[in-house]
Each structure stands twice: as C-alpha cells, then as structure tokens.
Backbone:
C-alpha cells in the first residue's frame, strides 16, 4: 500500500503508522547502535546513560513536540516554518544551522554506514574472520583505515542518492515500514545471547550502575549531544517530516513513542555490546570503532555466525539509509524551495557536498589521521560540531521560538489535532519550552566551556 498520497502542493502521510514508522526510521540508526555504545563507553557507562535518559525526556520530547508543531502548522521546511510564523524577524537564520548540521552529519555518517556495507559483504562472502583477537584486529584495521573506506563511503552515498531520486513518496517509507520491526527482533535475539557471555554481569553493571562522581561537563555535553543526535533533533529534520503528517496524527503521542522506541534500541545495543566488551577484553573507551571491533566476535561465537553477521549488517545499513534519507531532505528542500533548484539538481548538489566531507572523514582513520584541528580528526570534529554544538543550539532556538513566539492557540490546536483530542499538559509543555529546555542547554554549554 502506498502510504503517501501526492496532493498537488505537498505529500501527506496517509496513515498514523506511516508517520510513526518514518519518524522512528529517522531516529533509529547508527546513532543508537554505533554512537550510543561508544559515547557511553568513553563517558563512564551508567553515569552517561542516566544523563542521556534525563535529556531525552526532559529536553528531547518537548523539543520534538515543538518541531512537530512548527512543521505541521506551516507545512514547510525549517526556513519557511520560521518565516511563516514570524515574518518580521530573522528567526529563519536558524535554518542555516540545520543545513550545516545535516551536511556535517551526512559526511561522517556515510563513512560509518560504509563500514557496515563492507562488513556485510565480507560476512556474506565468508571473509570476515574474527576467530581470534589478533586476526580480528588485523582485519578490522584493514577495513576501517587506509583508502578502502573511501570506496564504501562513495557506494553508500550513491545508495542514498538513488533512494532520494525516487522521491519522497516511493523512497523513504517502504524501507522503514518493513525493516525497523525486523531490526528490533534481531536486537532482542542478540540481547538474549548476551546472557551467555562470561562477563555479562560486569557489562551490565558498567551500563546500568551509575557512578555519579563520573558526571563531568564533558559527560553532560556528550549526553545532550547524543540525545539530540539520536532523536534527529535540532536541525529541522523532524519539522520537515511533521510537515508531511496528516491532520490526525497525534503529535504528543508520536513524540513520546519515538523517544521511547529510540532509547529502547540504544539500551538494547548497550546490553549487546558491553558484556561482550568485557568478555573479550576490549576497552570500552575504544571510541568510534568500538562496535565494529566487538560485534564480529559476538557473531563468531554463534552457530551460523556468518549468516547472523550478514543479516545484522544489512539491517544496520538499511537503518542508516532511513536516517540519511531524512537528513538529506533538509538540504534538498532548502535548495528546492529557497534556491528554486529542481529536485534532482538539489539532490546532486547536496550529495556532492556530502561526498567532499565524507572523503575527509573516511580518510581520518588512515592517511589523514595526523591532520588535526583543535586536537580532533575531521571525523571527530564533524561529529563534535554537529552533535554537541549545532543540534543543541538549533533545538534551543526552536524551543525558545515555540515557547515565546507561537500563539498558545496554535500550540493547542496542533497538540489536540484541532480540538479532536484532549491534551492536558499544554501548560507543562510551554513551561518546558520557555524555561527548562533553553536554560538547561545554555547551562550545559557554559559548563562545557568551563564558565560554570
Ligand atoms: N537519529 C539518527 C540516528 O540515530 C541520526 C540522524 C541525526 C538522523 C540527525 C537525522 C538527523 O542514527
């Protein structure tokens, strides 16, 4: 069934399921399965998890609601949304933060997604040999360093291009509807398998037993960035998706469902990774390569390991595509609607920009590993600037704008679907948007640059 109907002006998701599946499709991706475990690993496990969960629900959900409200009310991209709601002030400039963030994220995300394709093909062809740590490590280094990642990054960006060239209607959704549930089932199966790991207990206490003394400014900023990254928040992505929601998609419910499913997937990933990390004697602080270093050992232990491994990396690759498709949409709609380019041209321009960024990031683990700006490789820098700076800043602007400048009647209308449902928490939502979210984000920023 085609769940998007192309109306003359703008497509609309036909079912509520499609709306949830698409937002979850955007939110769930490498952020949960690759980025969450590695961020939790370098930031002390439990301490990070607790801050992350607090930020998802205290800041993430209200900001998600505000993006939904702005998107569906105006039925436009981030620029159009700010402009329509406040034509006389340059709030729309926040859109540039979104575009910058989306291009930076697309660049490094494509590299990691490229690794997943490489892992998929190697496992499928039976070449992934992680039978002992020495060969495993050697293979891993060969796959992620050097020039090879460049090819996979290009292949990934090409897949992204092809899906997008199919248009909003055909491309995005078909993939989401079928595959997200399958990924979920497979993650649960691997979680159960985790119970058999010798250091299962140790892994779980690392993740779930918070050591509050480990909460430092960098843990707070990291957790905030991860919450925004994982929920695809702060760059207008959810705003654009909400502009395709039908008038009876319940915004509050969709926001909470998305946040819950998204965090659940991240926690499942943690439960899979950390017992294995301790059991195989790998450091939880390995950084961006952690998951790719650990997972093959897990698969290797399973009967039919190559099959599990291929299936898993295939699903992870597809989950990454549903996320990159959503972030690419930001720059494409910008070039189309603001710069009046044709969709194909807009797509080509943004893919080329992402390709240049992607090449820098792909080489960051090999030939460019010594090129550092502010102590970070291109890969780390792109990740840090987008997740820890642009996204929270974009979210802060969106929350202040919705809290202070959008009429309460509009918020009421959107949150109740034109009065069809009751939404009792409007006061709380506005309070969070006006005070809690902006203050919290601002304090975390100050804290991280050492002012607080
Ligand atoms: N939320 C996605 C993930 O977890 C990443 C993403 C970020 C997607 C920003 C869109 C916009 O993988």
Residues:
């Amino acid at each position: 069934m085609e769940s998007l109907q192309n109306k003359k002006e703008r497509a609309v998701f036909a079912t509520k399921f499609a709306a949830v599946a698409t937002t979850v499709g955007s939110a769930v991706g490498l952020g949960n399965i690759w980025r969450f475990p590695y961020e939790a690993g370098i930031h002390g496990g439990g301490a990070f998890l607790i801050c992350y969960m607090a930020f998802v629900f205290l800041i993430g959900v209200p900001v998600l609601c505000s993006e939904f409200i702005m998107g569906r009310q105006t039925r436009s991209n981030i620029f159009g949304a700010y402009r329509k709601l406040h034509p006389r002030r340059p709030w729309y400039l926040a859109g540039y933060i979104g575009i910058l963030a989306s291009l930076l994220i697309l660049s490094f995300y494509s590299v990691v997604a490229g690794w997943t394709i490489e892992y998929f093909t190697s496992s499928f062809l039976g070449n992934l040999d992680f039978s002992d740590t020495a060969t495993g490590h050697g293979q891993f280094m060969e796959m992620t360093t050097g020039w090879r990642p460049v090819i996979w990054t290009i292949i990934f960006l090409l897949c992204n291009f092809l899906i997008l060239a199919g248009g909003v209607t055909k491309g995005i959704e078909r993939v989401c509807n079928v595959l997200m549930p399958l990924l979920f089932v497979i993650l649960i199966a691997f979680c159960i398998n985790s119970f058999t790991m010798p250091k299962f207990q140790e892994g779980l206490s690392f993740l779930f037993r918070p050591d509050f003394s480990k909460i430092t400014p960098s843990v707070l900023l990291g957790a905030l960035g991860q919450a925004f990254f994982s929920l695809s928040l702060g760059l207008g992505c959810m705003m654009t998706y909400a502009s395709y929601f039908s008038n009876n998609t319940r915004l509050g419910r969709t926001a909470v469902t998305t946040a819950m499913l998204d965090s659940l997937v991240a926690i499942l990933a943690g439960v899979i990774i950390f017992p294995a990390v301790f059991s195989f004697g790998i450091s939880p602080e390995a950084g961006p390569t952690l998951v790719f270093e650990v997972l093959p050992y897990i698969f290797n232990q399973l009967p039919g390991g190559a099959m599990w491994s291929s299936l898993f990396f295939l699903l992870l690759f597809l989950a990454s595509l549903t996320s990159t498709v959503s972030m690419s949409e930001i720059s494409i709609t910008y070039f189309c609607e603001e710069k009046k380019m044709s969709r194909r041209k807009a797509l080509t321009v943004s893919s080329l920009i992402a390709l240049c960024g992607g090449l820098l990031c792909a080489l960051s683990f090999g030939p460019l590993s010594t090129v550092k700006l502010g102590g970070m490789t291109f890969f780390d820098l792109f990740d840090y600037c987008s997740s820890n700076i642009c996204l929270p800043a974009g979210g802060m602007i969106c929350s202040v704008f919705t809290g202070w400048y959008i009429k309460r009647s509009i918020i009421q209308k959107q949150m109740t679907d034109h009065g069809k449902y009751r939404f009792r928490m409007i006061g709380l939502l506005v309070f969070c948007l006006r005070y809690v979210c902006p203050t919290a984000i601002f304090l975390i920023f100050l804290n991280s640059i050492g002012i607080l």
